[in-house]
Amino acid sequence: MVPAFEEAAFKLGKGQISEVLETEFGYHLIYKQDEKVIREYRLAHILVKTQSIADILGPQGDWMNTKLTGKNLKRASVQFNSAAGMPEVSIEFDAEGSKLFEDITARNVGKQVAIFLDGYPISVPTVNDKISGGSAVINGRFSLQEAKDLAKRLNAGALPVPIELINQKTIGSSLGSQAVSDSMKAGVVGLILVAIFMVLVYRLLGVVAVISLLIYSVLLLAIFKLWPVTLTLSGLAGFIMSIGVAVDANILIFERMKEELAAGKSLSTAINDGFNRAWLSIRDGNFTIIITCLVLLFFSASVIRGFALTLFLGVLVSLFTAIVVTRNILKLIDERWLTKNQWLIGKINK
């Protein structure tokens, strides 16, 4: 019934006729002939199925279950028949299994015995003789892969693997984000301290180095975003360490420049010679780090790879900022102005 029809019908008493009712189907007159109470039951139940031997062992047909189980199997391995050179599977039982296996083979000489795993037969060899000593060989027209698979299945069936709850711990979802946030704060604090040190020691050159470091940080974070690189704790450690590598290159360049200025060379000449002579040291130091990072990327665990990847990318970007960015910023400084204000370069040992 449509809602309007249903509402009008339930309001009527027994033997009553409704007023004219309009629905989407037309006009109605409802006559209520009779009514009765219908009991309705809503039930819920839990079904626990009982299992038979066939449910556990699977369809076995005419097979008879024995007491020999996977717990009695010590090992199964692949070997090659010395005469035919064909792969075969060697099995070895413990003391209890050896006796059971001897009784089974004695009763079934010339007959087949089946090995079941998870209720399904994985091998049905024929018993040639009574086998004593607890060792036997399953041979047939196996390929090497088939023999390996059979040995693997036999060993899997022999493993007693109980499920036992050793420990249970609830970890809040904020733990990882909090650790990453703290690491980011540590990186920012480290960058600020390095910037203060560079400005105090190298003055104007330190300001240039700080600008170069800021450009370095922006470029590296952009690469992390575009790659994308997941910043784990180890990855953040590599990123923070690469800041030190970038500063090291600037220090080598500035010290070389000061040596050239102390020798009486002009600023432009000191800049060129300082970069050219510092480049060999920068190249060798950074390339050794790059080689180490590549070794860690290919031969270490995943946690270490995050550290190696961010450090590798940081070293490459630091080479670019130290050689290209820092050099071009220094060339923008007016040589005559800086000659008059040499104190901005810091102490020059002559």
Question: What does it look like?
Answer:
With 350 residues, the chain is mainly α. It folds into 3 domains: 1-44, no CATH class; 57-158, 2-Layer Sandwich (Gyrase A, domain 2), CATH 3.30.1360; 181-344, Multidrug efflux transporter AcrB transmembrane fold (Up-down Bundle). The protein has helices at residues 3-11, 53-57, 95-107, 144-158, 174-202, 204-226, 233-262, 267-299, 302-331, 335-340, and strands at 21-23, 26-28, 73-80, 87-93, 115-117, 120-123, 135-138. Helix 5 packs antiparallel against helix 6 (204-226), helix 7 (233-262) runs antiparallel to helix 8 (267-299) and helix 8 (267-299) packs antiparallel against helix 9 (302-331). The longest helix has 33 residues, at 267-299.
What is the CATH C-level name of the largest domain? Mainly Alpha
The CATH architecture of the largest domain comes to Up-down Bundle
Give the beta-strand count.
Answer: 7
Query: Which descriptor suits the 3D outline?
Result: flat
Q: What is the number of helical segments per DSSP (H or I, 4+ residues)?
A: 10
Unreliable stretches (pLDDT < 50, length at least 5) are 171-175
As a percent range, the share of helical residues equals 55-70%
Give me the CATH superfamily of the largest domain: Multidrug efflux transporter AcrB transmembrane domain
Order of helices and strands: HEEHEEHEEEHHHHHHH
From the N-terminal CA to the C-terminal CA, the straight-line distance is 106 Å
- The figure for the number of domains is 3
Structural classification: mainly alpha
Strand order of the largest sheet: 3-4-7
Average pLDDT metric:
78
**Oligomeric assembly:** single chain
